[in-house]
Amino acid sequence: MVLAAGQGERMRPLTLSVPKPLVPLAGRPLIDHVLDRLGSAGVEKAVVNLHYLAERLEAHLRHRQEAKPEILFSDERDLLLDTGGGTKKALPLLGPGPFFIHNSDSVWSDGVVPALPEMLRLWDASAMDCLLLLAPLASSLGYSGRGDFAMAPDGRLSRRGERQVVPFAFAGVSLCEERLFEASPDGPFSLNLLWDRALARGRLYGMRLDGCWMHVGTPEALAEAETWFEREGA
């Protein structure tokens, strides 16, 4: 599931006429970085949700139809459903799990261990409701927050407290199965609701990213990521 329906307000003015997934980074739209990585990891099908400037995004993606993964569309033009509601609507297209939920602006450089195949290797449906990819703050670009999660040695997660600083930020990718959405609300809702339920059951886990994560949420962070690509030649 590639989450691409948002309005990209923090990326303005770049997103006044272009949907955020089509904002270029190193000469390629952000969503192409995502889809190419998914294809390289062996993902065969990607569902992309559409809302803001949907026609432009759909037209771009239809030109990728010969490339992997195969692209299906989940239309949210009438109502933006947020991350949880949008994924729930797309469940019939996603089929049996496990499946990734991938932000369309999540970009990173893999280290020795590629992240997506490693997440699949670590997935344990008997213990986990959801597995999150986490970026160490010390090796991330464009992120100025205090982190999102602390992680125990066995991978179990806890939320950052109000006055805490924790070592990891959510890097925009999670792995789950359809059962995560059981008894979830109808209409718009955030994935955070489902993560908090998994936390309460001790079934929310994380995996540390081996590489450099680029948080391209603003024009300034995008410029920082461009500089990284120029320097590293990635």
Please report the number of helical segments: 6
Share of helix, binned: 25-40%
Q: Quick one: how many beta strands?
A: 14
Q: CATH superfamily assignment?
A: Spore Coat Polysaccharide Biosynthesis Protein SpsA, Chain A
- Write down the CATH class: Alpha Beta
Task: Estimate the mean pLDDT confidence.
Answer: 93
Key structural traits:
26% strand; three-stranded mixed sheet; Spore Coat Polysaccharide Biosynthesis Protein SpsA, Chain A
Explained architecture:
This protein has helices spanning 30-40, 54-62, 82-94, 115-122, 191-200, 219-232, and strands at residues 2-3, 24-25, 28-29, 45-50, 70-75, 99-103, 106-110, 130-136, 140-141, 149-151, 157-159, 168-176, 204-208, 211-215. The model has no long low-confidence stretch (mean pLDDT 93). The protein has a single domain, classed as Spore Coat Polysaccharide Biosynthesis Protein SpsA, Chain A, CATH 3.90.550. 39% of the residues are buried. It is 28% helix and 26% strand. The protein is globular. Helix 3 packs across helix 5 (191-200). Strands 1-6-12-8-13 form a five-stranded mixed β-sheet, with helices on both faces. It is α/β, with parallel strands linked by helices and 234 residues long. A hairpin with a 5-residue loop joins strand 10 and strand 11.
